[in-house]
Design goal:
By secondary structure, the protein is an alpha+beta fold. It contains three helices and two strands. The chain has a two-stranded antiparallel sheet. It is elongated, with a radius of gyration of 16 Å. The N and C termini lie far apart (45 Å).
Length: 77
């Protein structure tokens, strides 16, 4: 997704949003790998939230992460 990733409008919108917000990264690392966020429950609860980046700068919703984290039940010992 290297070249096609930089040609997407959403990527540039995310870049300018971060830049206006004062974010400045170190630009070290691979730079072409998309990330994700998983919230995994205890025991057999499994995956409670899965968010995979579709383009660079695609953010997960913080309220959805907190909501999923609140659903984690302690594992019986």
């Amino acid at each position: 997704m290297l070249l096609s990733g930089f040609l997407r409008l959403g990527v540039w919108q995310n870049f300018f949003r971060a830049w206006r917000g004062g974010y400045s990264g170190n630009l070290k690392g691979e730079g072409i790998t998309l990330g994700g966020v998983y919230v995994i429950g205890a025991g057999r609860q499994g995956v409670l939230l899965e968010h995979r980046e579709k383009e660079f700068g695609d953010k997960v919703s913080l309220p959805s992460v907190l909501e999923a984290a609140e659903k984690i039940k302690p594992q019986a010992s």
